[in-house]
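Sorry, can you check?
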Amino acid sequence: MGINRRNDSRLTRNRILEFSLRQLNELGAPSVTTTSIAEGMGISPGLLYYHFRNKYDIINSLFESFEQEMDRLLTCPQGHAVTLKWSWSHIQYLSEFMWSYRFLYLDINDLLLHSRTLEVKFKRIVERKKDFALEICGQLLEFGEMEATPEQLDAMCTSIVVVITYWLSFQFLQHARHYNDAERIRAHLHGSSYHIISILAPHLRGGAREAYNQLICEYEVSTQGRPFETGDGHRPLSIADAAIALDDGGDLASIHAAIRHGRTRAVEHVMVDQKDVQK
């Protein structure tokens, strides 16, 4: 009898967490209360308070699960070297997982102001992201597939952390009406791989550089040209790609002119004439 009660209690607690996660993701943390959770589940507030003291107790419990999985995801595979293709796919999976806890990123400022525990833990996640980026880059450097000074490496990895941390917020800004639709938002989430790997592009060498070119071509095909074609004969590229175009003889004046005329599509994008990148 006692075992059954414990099992029932555990099941109820898990149900509360699952329902709370859905509400937090769909409505946002400021709009969710313990009352709305209890009403939505059809349980008494007393039963909810038996398991959780308040909303932030629920959020802290959800964060524990999020943190455990992030620790696993922010670890390089053992037994074989990291490749650029693996990194590309892994970033896509990481973006999807983060989207499943998207309220943590969309409401980050409000959450950190109300919970010192979350502030400390979230900072640790950010530090883990940078360590993960440094580890990947370190392996590429070790195998001669990247060239960068320590200062450049630190700057690149910091930029990667900023993009991966705020990519969900950027996508919400771009696709607010469809943000809770997994199928409609997935392709946009996967765009993080393109932008993050492009940060490394000017420093890639050998096989990694070839892999980057192949991945970009495959990405362009899979998205049917949408991230690249603007309808006016121009092609938006990341700043990293623009730098590569310049190295290959591209026209700096055309890039500056595009920026001056406001023809930017998004954060870290510039317009470059197609002829300037067909090298």
Residues 229-279 form one domain. The first strand starts at residue 234 and ends at 238.
